[in-house]
C-alpha cells in the first residue's frame, strides 16, 4: 500500500471527509496554491527536520510561512534543528522532499504544528505525491496529527 492509499484509509476510518485534486506536479507551496487556485496560507508545508541529537521530527506550517529555527528548536526541546537530508526524508516518511504529508501516525516521527494552520476552514496537503492534493478541514488535520502546537 503506497502512502496515498494509507492516507485515504486513515481518513476513511476516521470518517473525515476529503476531496482529492489532481494537478501538474508541484514542488513548492506557491505553485501548489496557484494550481489549486487558493491562498498559499491554505496549503500545508510539512518539513522533516533533524534535531541536534539526531532525532527526526515533522514541522507543519501554513504554506506562506518560513521556519523560525529558534522557535522550532525550543518547541522540540532541543538547541538546534536543521533540514533532514533528502535521502533521510525518503527513508523516514516514504516519499520525496516537497510532498511530505502532515501525518505523524503514519511514521514514528513526532509532529509539531503552527497553531495558525488550524485557524483556516480548509487546508490542502500533498499525499506523498507531487501531482495530487487533498483538501480537509483544518480542525480535522489537527485531530489527525495530534501535534504539539508551537
Characterise the protein shown here.
The longest helix has 11 residues, at about 5-15. The protein has a single domain, classed as Alpha-Beta Complex (YbaK protein), CATH 3.90.960. A hairpin with a 6-residue loop joins strand 6 (about 120-125) and strand 7 (about 130-135). The chain has helices at about 5-15, 30-35, 70-75, 85-95, 140-145; strands at about 20, 45-50, 55-60, 80-85, 110-115, 120-125, 130-135, 150. The chain has five helices and eight strands; from the N terminus they run H-E-H-E-E-H-E-H-E-E-E-H-E. The strands form two sheets. It has a five-stranded mixed β-sheet with strand order 4-2-3-5-8. Strands 1-7-6 form a three-stranded antiparallel β-sheet. It is about 30% helix and about 25% strand. It is globular. It starts with a helix and ends with a strand. It is an alpha/beta fold and about 150 residues long.
Main attributes of the structure:
single chain, 150 residues, alpha/beta, three-stranded antiparallel sheet, 5 helices, 8 strands, 25% strand
